[in-house]
Amino acid sequence: MAGIVVVFDFDKTIIDLDSDNWVVDELGATDLFNQLLPTMPWNSLMDRMMTELHAQGKTIDDIVEVLKRAPIHPDVVPAIRAAHALGCDLRIVSDANMFFIETILDHLGIRECFSEINTNPGYVDEEGRLRIFPIHDFQKSSHGCNLCPPNMCKGLVMERIQASLMSEGKKKKFIYLGDGSGDYCPSLKLGEGDFLMPRKNFPLWDLISQNPLVIKAEIHEWSDGEELARILLNLIKTISMAENAQLLSPQNMGVPVYEALPSPTPKPAMVAN
Ligand SMILES: [Mg+2]
Ligand SMILES: [Zn+2]
Predict the structure, then answer these.
(1) Where does Mg(2+) bind (predicted)?
(2) Sheet-wide strand order for 89-97
(3) Which of 80, 83, 139, 148 could cross-link with 88 by S-S, CB 3.0 to 4.6 Å?
């Protein structure tokens, strides 16, 4: 089943909450975060928060320990492993950061299930401080999409993935899973034959509900990890059964269509009265 690409958002999709909020809250910096939020973009604020936490004596180990406790529904990891084992190409497109995501995926033992993680760079500097940077350097230039935050347009990431697979001559079906308003732009890039799995009653689902006709993909909503797992694996099964049926169709087996089909009943001649 080489034909399916599953693109996951991370926060509130793979894990059950927002990793940025989780780290800030668990390390006791919520008030400062809320105070500074109106003054700068979210992504820049996360870098600032990491500096503040470092100054307060919080270490990388403290952050890692918090990330390892991030809540995740018990059905999600098995679903990711199953989708990977079935041959799907799994990718992440997230507005969190590489350090948080890799730490959590390593801890869950599923890092190697993903062929690609598209997110804001995050690394530990020589002073042991976590630095977080925008994936798109908006100080230099705007990405030009007014649906998305300045540091990341997930729609542009989707277009790059679609274009690179296209240039390899691979016809793929996409399944996109997400919850947030940042997942709306990439949802608009999905085509007919693709699938969109928005989390029910979350901002992406609200945006789609306002005007479902702009979405070309088939929509399958989910509420929690149990539904995510069941619906995702069902979709993968359905798509691969359809793919196999196509592979076995007369056109693809070199059998002339007229031989493979039952003889058509002759049409009654049109009689003019
Ligand atoms: Mg999310
Ligand atoms: Zn966008």
Answers:
(1) 9, 11, 179
(2) 114-120, 89-97, 4-8, 173-178, 195-198, 218-219
(3) 83
